[in-house]
Amino acid sequence: MRILVVGGGGREHALVWALAASPLADKIFCAPGNAGIAEVGECVPIAAEELDRLVAFAEAQAIDFVVIGPEGPLVLGLVDRLEAVGIKAFGPSAKAAALEGSKGFMKDLAATYGIPSAAYGRFSDPAEAKAFVRARGAPIVVKADGLAAGKGVTVARSLQEAEAAIDAALVAGQFGRAGRELVIEEFLEGEEASVLALVDGAHFLTLPSAQDHKAAYDGDRGPNTGGMGAYSPAPIVTPLVQKKIEESILAPAVAAMAKEGRPFKGILYAGLMIGQEGPKLLEFNVRFGDPECQALIVRLKSDLLPALVAARDGELKFFDLRWHAEPSLCVVMAAKGYPGAYVKGSEIRNLEAARAVEGVAIFHAGTARAEGKLIAVGGRVLGVTARGSTLAQAQARAYRAVDLIRWPEGFCRRDIGWRVLGR
Questions:
Q1: CB-based contacts of 299: which residues, under 8 Å, 6+ apart?
Q2: Helices and strands per DSSP (H, E), number in the chain
């Protein structure tokens, strides 16, 4: 098969890395890709949201199968465009991608079909939003309805913070179109976890659990990011908890989307809060998480490609995947200043020595090659990922590799996995 992977982050490097190991893959392209992806596939200078150019490239190159990494092109309808010209694609249609493209749509679906989630309201008027916040009290969560690159959520600890978030979105237009409507919901207590499932429109196959670390700094302090690290599995997701997630969240959501005329195919990512009342849905994403994908992919024993094709073809019912029992952990190295303004163009050295650490794989995100040098061009730059016989060993291996990388302009959290390893 000739395969095109769309995207250029750590998630896409992990996907290309796994797909390149498939005996079914003859040629892998990635648009736009990055310096790490270029080592295992051919990078194409087309941005992930340039739909016309992507479709034209796929047709010209006789691509058999397209795997779409980021949410943007999915919400814009890239799968629909590709399928319309006879090219198979992995991911949801634009109608199904509304599960991530509109938090209001997701919350309404959960409310309609009895999927446990936080109480909420939807607002486009700042005065009404503030009245809701004052009536509910703090802490409270303020979310931009649309796609905001992982930065549209404020967990407000005070009424002032909540009102400032409302003004930033609805008055100052901080998030543009994505923030013209807000979802404001109750703050849920508990521990977060992520459970992803392959979905074929009617059936789903649950993947191992993971736990992301969203805050920029150790101890879950600082601003929210796209994710500073992850590990898998998450012990908070016991077999009993997973059964509840499948029965009360995943199965009803898959059935609801089919009933709504929006059958979901692709990866359904459930962001969850595990509290005293059991698992509750925080959000649905419609793609592999980043960095959860990196932590999951190094545990996968099976060939990834047939699984993705089976999801697209509606043939997951009798499908299964095999996984390494060993846990994994991913540490994200980011440019200093991220998630705010950061410097681009700094050189990264000694990656080969880091990669040689036992059990380690290094996935590139914001990297490029310039005059033979590896340089940082993004906010999140590397995903240093390791497996180990225990989570502590996986963590030790990942940080050993991190410490070998020579990149003074970068930083990382030093406590990925702290919730488990601190117990």
A1: 208, 232, 323, 324, 326, 327, 328, 387
A2: 15, 23
H/E segment holding residue 229:
strand 229-232
What is 328-421's CATH number?
3.90.600.10
- Number of CB atoms found within 10 A of residue 186's CB: 16
In this prediction, residues 190-219 reach a mean pLDDT of 96
CA–CA separation, 284 and 270 (whole Å): 5
| Level-2 CATH architecture, domain 2-93 | 3-Layer(aba) Sandwich (3.40)
What kind and span of H or E run contains 215?
strand 215-217
Distance (Å, whole) CA 80 – CA 89: 9
Q: Which CATH class is domain 125-180?
A: alpha beta
Q: What is the pLDDT of residues 34-52, one digit of tens each?
A: 999 999 999 999 999 999 9
Q: How far apart are CA 164 and CA 238, in angstroms?
A: 38
Say if residue 150's pLDDT is above 80: no
- Residue 212 pLDDT class (50, 70, 90 cuts): very high
Q: Report whether pLDDT(151) > 90.
A: no
The domain spans of the chain are 2-93, 125-180, 191-313, 328-421
Q: Quick one: CA torsion of 404, 397, 191, 174, rounded to 10 degrees?
A: 30
SS3 74: helix
Residue range 191-313, CATH number = 3.30.470.20
Which residues 6+ apart lie within 8 Å of 384 measured at CB? Answer: 330, 331, 332, 333, 354, 360, 362, 398, 401, 402, 405, 412
- Helix (H, G, I), strand (E, B), or coil: what is residue 422? coil
pLDDT at 251: 98
pTM for this model (two decimals)? 0.95
**Cβ partners under 8 Å of residue 333, min gap 6:** 380, 381, 382, 383, 384, 402, 405, 407, 410, 411, 412
Residue 407 is predicted with a pLDDT of 98
How far apart CA 412 and CA 348 sit, in angstroms, is 14
Residue 19 in contact with residue 28, Cβ under 8 Å? yes
Interatomic CA distance for residues 59 and 327, integer angstroms? 40
